[in-house]
Write a structure and sequence with these properties.
Layout (H helix, E strand, L loop, with lengths): L5 H4 L14 H16 L20 E3 L1 H9 L3 H11 L6 E7 L3 E6 L1 H14 L13 E5 L11 H19 L3 E8 L4 H17 L14 H14 L7 H5 L14 H22 L1 H24 L6 E4 H6 L2 H11 L3 E4 L2 E4 L10 E4 L7 H14 L4 E4 L1 E2 L6 H10 L7 E2 L2 E2 L2 E5 L2 E2 L12 H8 L1 H8 L8 E4 H5 L6 H19 L17 H22 L4 H20 L7 H24 L9
Parallel strand pairs: 4-5, 4-10, 5-6, 10-12, 11-13, 14-16
Antiparallel strand pairs: 1-3, 2-3, 7-8, 8-9, 14-15
The protein binds one RNA strand of 77 nucleotides through helix 3, strand 8, strand 9, helix 14 and helix 19.
RNA sequence: GUGCCCGUAGCUCAAUCGGAUAGAGCACCAGCCUUCUAAGCUGGGGGUUACAGGUUCGAUUCCUGUCGGGCACGCCA
């Protein structure tokens, strides 16, 4: 049995009420299983249902006859007829018919269609919860940006995608842990510390030219000010000692001048070494201040974006507790390492990588890859059944080596999933907004959030498949107009609440009202959308594709707006009024829940 | 050069593990507020799914090749 079909998808996880009652799609599926036992008892075909795109093809369809035609050596039409004849009678089914080359279309009775309204109102926020995950533990690691500066709009996409994906997985029955990997151990952090220190020194009149490969943002100067307030001039050192042994900054005459870049990197390395020896413990002070300030800023930024983590995992901790050295030893013990040119190499090419990789440099320092192996081993040892890394698409070449390492350590690398998130281009007034990380002129997530708002930003980010480049239209995201998809969906929710408020009754009673008076085509369309919500959740979880949920919500909102325009809900006839209120109240439940999964508010008035 | 991703309406994008007549929004055209929010609705035109083959009952989807775009190819992280 392959994963993810209606048989599991529609098994509502609702242990509180009627735990043994099968969902409606499940019951339809059971009918087909029965028929299969009669018509083709030995066929190795998974019995699944699909939802026809086309109105007029019923509520459910089966392609069983088409799939069986070959093995049974009979025409599909004939098999379809036999299957239909073998279907047990059901009060849910109005009619079943063969269509096209051999599709079997199932039409529900009106009562069966209406039942979803009551189901939704009773389930509330539990509606749409599916058991795809069966409570299995999954970890989603995302953002994990170097804490060396503010998050930019690219990180924002990773944040929005990762957070939505984690929510969707949780809704689909996984036990989800959200984690942020803090790269607090590497050279980048040293560069940030030195950058801060140089700004600090400048505040005391130092004339040291600021290196082009340092961090140049205003936030660095701000941290230098903090440093001056907390440490006075105790960290001041003379220019000559700071610059001692540095080759000096090479002018970068053109982009990609390898020689000049290399010299500047050396310059920086010497500055770092000097800082460490000149400051002693004071260096740690600078380093820690920079790290904590940036992490706090990052956390605050993400929280305001509706993104919260269960755990912030420090890379440094893997060095401190010996994990990195241990994992390298394990690889060595397994015979997966060799020495060459003074460095230690991991034979990743033996596990599908295109070349071998260094884990310990000639100077004895472990590479980032080494700590990353330790980190992934740690994840697997924590007992997650599945580990999801959300990475920027530029890291795709990194996947094979991590999987190779996991395999070499005896883990099942197939349990590591790495959805890639493509780049973001901002558009303003129809033109691409230039972004340069070089000079600190990039657009930050905070600026984006301030400009377009959290809701629009979150929604726009997941409006594209994650592996697709995203053109982010700032003007559209800001516009309070019908062009803006986020308002379109929110407006549908607000409209419903407006009606409920005007009615003024107790919404909790709507779950019990008779629904027979609901009989217009638009009402049945809305019921179909309600029925499709668990399916949308499951598809989004299965494919790591929260954008499917965003599209679903747009469609549901469209159906609601259409209905709203064509139908007066608050009519004088009481039973009709209550039934219509129940229907739109159910729609509001789903809109609210879906938006919440995407980190978007569902306002009750706009 | 090698590897991965992508190519769908004028634009931005969907398309349920291969399904029925490839769908939305924007833009364009024509309509709808004395009625629960017009941030809305109704209708219309618009396609050789980059191109050429292959696999099969059936291909936007899978395979091969060509063209075009992006990314990655470090003892950086």
């Amino acid at each position: 049995m392959r994963r993810g079909h209606y048989n599991v998808a529609f098994n509502q996880t609702d242990p509180m009420t009627e735990p043994t009652l099968q969902s409606l799609p499940e019951r339809i599926l059971a009918l087909f299983r029965d028929a299969m036992r009669t018509v083709a008892p030995h066929a190795a075909v998974a019995v699944v249902l699909e939802r026809p795109r086309q109105a007029g093809h019923g509520e459910f369809a089966s392609t069983l006859a088409l799939q069986l035609a070959k093995s049974l050596q009979r025409p599909p039409g004939e098999i379809a007829a036999a299957l239909i004849k073998a279907l047990p009678p059901s009060p849910l089914v109005e009619k079943v018919e063969v269509a096209g080359p051999g599709f079997i279309n199932v039409f529900l009775t009106p009562a069966a269609k209406r039942s979803v309204v009551t189901e939704v109102l009773r389930a509330g926020s539990r509606w749409g919860a599916v058991s795809l995950g069966h409570g299995r533990r999954v970890q989603v690691e995302f953002v994990s940006s170097n804490p060396t500066g503010p998050l930019h709009v690219g990180h924002g996409r990773g944040a929005a995608f990762g957070a939505s994906l984690a929510n969707v997985l949780a809704k689909a029955g996984y036990e989800v842990q959200r984690e942020y990997y803090v790269n607090d151990a590497g050279r980048q952090m040293d560069i940030l510390a030195v950058s801060t220190w140089l700004r600090y020194l400048a505040g005391f009149g130092s004339k040291i030219p600021f290196p082009p490969n340092g961090y140049q943002g205003d936030y660095v100067t701000a941290m230098a000010d903090t440093l001056r307030k907390t440490c006075g001039h105790s960290l001041f050192r003379a220019d000559e000692s700071v610059l001692d042994g540095t080759p000096g900054i090479a002018p970068l005459l053109r982009e990609g001048d390898k020689e000049a870049e290399a010299r500047n990197e050396t310059h920086m390395d010497v500055l770092i070494a000097n800082a460490k020896s000149l400051l002693g413990d004071g260096y740690k002070t600078v380093h820690q201040l920079a790290l904590h300030e940036q992490l706090a800023d990052c956390r605050e930024d993400l929280e305001a974006f509706g993104v919260v983590f269960d755990r912030w995992f420090s890379e440094q901790s893997l060095y401190d507790d010996g994990s990195v050295a241990r994992v390298v030893d394990r690889l060595a013990a397994g015979g997966h390492l060799y020495d060459q040119d003074g460095a230690r190499w991991f034979r990743s090419s033996a596990f599908g990588d295109e070349k071998d990789r260094v884990v310990q440099r000639e100077n004895g320092i472990f590479t980032y890859f080494a700590s990353d192996i330790a980190y992934h081993a740690n994840k697997f040892e924590r007992g997650f059944e599945r580990v999801v890394d959300v990475w920027g698409a530029d890291h795709h070449g990194y996947i094979p080596r991590v999987k190779a390492a996991l395999t070499a350590l005896g883990f099942d690398a197939g349990r590591l999933h790495v959805p890639l998130v493509q780049f973001v281009s901002l558009y303003r007034h129809g033109e691409k907004a230039q972004m340069s990380t070089r000079k600190g002129q990039f657009v930050t997530l905070r600026e984006l959030r301030t400009e377009v708002g959290r809701d629009a930003a979150r929604f726009f980010y997941v409006l594209r498949k994650s592996d697709q480049h995203l053109d982010f239209d700032l003007d559209l995201a800001k516009s309070e107009s019908n062009d803006n998809p986020v308002y379109y969906v929110q407006y549908a929710h607000a409209r419903i609440h407006s009606v409920l408020q005007k009615w003024g009754g107790d919404a909790a009673l709507l779950a019990g009202v008779p629904l027979d008076v609901l009989d217009s085509p638009q009402e049945f369309v809305l019921m179909q959308w309600l029925r499709a919500y668990p399916e949308a959740v499951e598809a989004a979880a299965r494919d790591y594709a929260p954008h499917q949920l965003a599209f679903y919500l747009k469609d549901l909102a469209a159906a609601l707006h259409s209905y709203y325009n064509a139908t007066q809900v608050l009519v004088s006839e009481e039973p009709r009024k209550l039934a219509r209120l129940a229907l739109i109240a159910a729609v509001a439940v789903v809109l609210r829940d879906g938006l919440q999964l995407l980190g978007v508010h569902a306002p009750e008035s706009m």
